[in-house]
Amino acid sequence: PHRCVYCNQKITAGNFPPEITKEFLDAEVHSYLSWKKDKQRNVEIAFYGGSFTGMDFAYQEKLLSWAYSFIQKGLVHSIRISTRPDCISEDNISVLKNFNVTTIEIGAQSFIDDVLQSAQRGHDAAAIVRSMTILKDHGFRTGLHLMAGLPKDSKEGFIYSLDKTVELRPDTVRINPVIVFRGTTLAEDFRKGNYKPLELDETVELCRLAWQKLSAAGIRVIRIGLQTTPEMEKDGAVLAGPLHPALGTLVLSSVFYDHTMKLLEKVSPEAKELHFNLSEPDISNFRGLNNMNISAIKKLYPRTKIIVRSIEGQKRGAISVSADSMGSFTVEIPGWGR
Q1: Strand-strand pairing, 273-278 and 305-310
Q2: Distance separating alpha carbons of residues 162 and 92, to the nearest angstrom
Q3: DSSP 8-state secondary structure symbol assigned to residue 237
Q4: Phi/psi of residue 286, each to 5°?
Q5: Pairing state of beta strands 318-323 and 273-278?
Q6: At 209, is the secondary structure helix, strand, or coil?
Q7: CB of 252 within 8 A of CB of 289?
Q8: pLDDT tens across 81-135, in order?
Q9: Among 209, 200, 216, which Cα is nearest to 159's?
Q10: What whole-number distance in Å separates Cα of residue 278 and Cα of residue 171?
Q11: Backbone angles phi, psi at 75, to 5 degrees
């Protein structure tokens, strides 16, 4: 119903047919089922890349019935959709429940009306609250999508949106930075000098703040950054913006670095040795992409030998440090491993 200033579905969603057929859906699901290695893991069919409940009602029912047939056969456990906040109402909830849709993700993007208007979202922040209230009242699992770097937004505005998200307590959140794609209104604004996208370091900082605030509140951040599609990799598809294939890794490494710096406030820069103890699965995030965190620590401790070890039984998200003959200090990252 609305085309936002940043949106080019052909690039972000990939090269899917304009209308999904039963044959196409069946082939996609069977392809995944034949590939899936963990046979005990629950399987969901997800309809993403647009506003599912904003489509023609008969088409919605067709897609849901085709997906539901896999649930009836015991091959799939549930269905998940994404949609706009102003496309959720009491009228369409019953159909979604009948076809075993269990999770609905809402494209909120921001909770500031001026930002939503500038992005041409076509709804206000109140619509987000209304949709989440309806979904929770009917027992759906909920997710919210937020964007960093929207036109007219700011660091303070983004943090405000995070605070409003915590108030609504969705089960999950996805965070994407704004990317300037070819063929969008934002592309024209960028060319005219009327829009400046976030730099990568700004993006990592905002997403780190988001991860820390949401995780501490018990809300799972299930993705940071856009899933790369073949269309994105074509020449001229991306004009500007912090598109990075490992943005999530950069952010989680930044979380570890932030907590490590707090821990090192207790340690003299003249220490001869620094021993860091972590859970084995946490070591890569502690070290950072291409050992960037270790390099940063070495700049602060240029004459210090740095030793990183995995310790059996160490709690996930716990970082312990000891230096020379001093005792060990530990900091825990709230919400890690959830």
Answers
A1: parallel
A2: 28
A3: S
A4: -65, -45
A5: antiparallel
A6: helix
A7: no
A8: 999 999 999 888 989 999 999 999 999 999 999 999 999 999 999 999 999 999 9
A9: 209
A10: 28
A11: -90, -25
Q: Between the CA atoms of 42, 48, 51 and 54, what dihedral angle is there, to the nearest 10 degrees?
A: -60
Tokens 């821990």 correspond to 263
Q: Which of 245, 306, 299 is nearest to 271 (CA)?
A: 306
- 168 three-class SS: helix
Which two structure tokens, joined as six digits, stand for 128? Answer: 């987000």
Distance, in Å, from the CA atom of 146 to the CA atom of 258, rounded to the nearest integer, reads: 22
The pTM assigned to this predicted structure is 0.93
Phi, then psi, of 62 in degrees rounded to 5: -60, -50
pLDDT tens for residues 31-46? 999 987 777 789 999 9
The two structure tokens encoding residue 111: 């909770």
Residue 143's φ and ψ, nearest 5 degrees, are -135, 155
> 321 in helix, strand or coil?
strand
Give span(s): CATH 3.40.30, the chain.
Answer: 263-332
Q: What distance lies between CA 96 and its chain's CA centroid?
A: 24
Task: Give the CA count within 13 Å in the CB-facing half-sphere of 184.
Answer: 28
Q: Residue 100 phi/psi, 5° resolution?
A: 65, 35
**What token pair was written down for 50?**
């647009």
- CATH for 263-332 is 3.40.30
The matching CATH number, chosen from 3.30.70.330, 3.20.20.70, 3.40.190.10, 3.40.640.10, for 9-245 is 3.20.20.70
